[in-house]
Write a structure and sequence with these properties.
The protein is of the alpha+beta class and about 190 residues long. The chain has a single domain, classed as Beta Polymerase, domain 2 (2-Layer Sandwich), CATH 3.30.460. The protein is about 45% helix and about 15% strand. A hairpin with a 6-residue loop joins strand 4 and strand 5. Helix 3 crosses helix 4, helix 6 packs antiparallel against helix 7 and helix 6 crosses helix 8. The N terminus is likely disordered.
Length: about 190
C-alpha cells in the first residue's frame, strides 16, 4: 500500500510536522488509534497520541520553545515549567494544537514505566503507512487495544491491524506485552 504525498490527510501532516520537532529533542512513538488509521482503517479521531522518553525539565523547556516557534501551542499552558511540573511529571498528558486551530490535537505524555520504555526501545517506522514516523510495534498496539483499552473501536482497531499484518505478527510478543500490561497497568 504505497501512498503518495497527495494522499496525505490533515492528521498525517499534523503528526509529521509535530514529530519533526520532537525528534530533535527526544525519542518518541505514536500509539493508539492513529496507528490503525495510518494503516487504512476508516474511523474518526481528532488526536494523535505520542509518548516521549522521560526527559528533564530543561530539555522539555527547549522542546516546548521549538514547538511554539513552529506554530504549535499547548492548550493547558504556555509556561514550560508549569506544563512539566503540573502535568508531565505527574504522568498526565498535555495537548498541543496548531496556533489558533483547535483540531486536530497531539496528546503528549512522558514515558511512565517499563512498558512505555519497552515500546520506545522497540519503536518502528512502519512502511505500510507511507509515513516517516515512529510507531509502537504492531504487537504492542494490538496488545494494548485487546488487553487494556478494550472499547469497541479499540477492538476493531486491533482486528484491522491483525488483518493488515496477517501472518507477520509475533503472537508470542503480543502475549508477552499483554502479560506486561496486566502486571504494570491492571494490577
Amino acid at each position: 500500500m504505497d501512498r503518495e504525498v497527495k494522499d496525505r490527510t490533515i492528521l498525517d501532516e499534523f503528526a509529521s510536522d509535530f514529530a519533526r520537532v520532537i525528534e530533535r529533542h527526544a525519542k518518541y512513538i505514536i500509539v493508539s488509534g492513529f496507528v490503525a488509521i495510518a494503516h487504512g482503517r476508516s474511523r474518526g479521531t481528532e488526536d494523535v497520541d505520542i509518548i516521549i522518553e522521560r526527559i528533564p525539565r530543561d530539555s522539555f523547556a527547549r522542546l516546548h520553545r521549538e514547538l511554539l516557534e513552529n506554530s504549535f501551542e499547548c492548550i493547558q499552558s504556555q509556561d514550560p515549567d508549569e506544563i512539566y511540573k503540573e502535568y508531565l511529571s505527574r504522568n498526565l498528558s498535555v495537548r498541543y494544537v496548531r496556533k489558533g486551530i483547535h483540531i486536530p490535537e497531539i496528546e503528549l505524555k512522558l514515558s511512565k514505566d517499563e512498558l512505555d520504555e519497552h515500546q520506545l526501545n522497540t519503536r518502528r517506522k512502519l512502511p505500510l503507512t507511507g509515513l516517516d514516523l515512529y510507531f509502537s510495534s504492531i504487537e504492542a498496539s494490538i496488545a494494548f487495544k485487546e488487553e487494556l483499552l478494550k472499547s469497541e473501536k479499540d477492538v476493531e482497531d486491533a482486528r484491522h491491524l491483525r488483518i493488515v499484518y496477517e501472518g507477520k505478527t509475533n503472537e508470542q510478543e503480543i502475549e508477552r506485552m499483554k502479560k506486561l500490561i496486566r502486571g504494570l497497568r491492571l494490577k
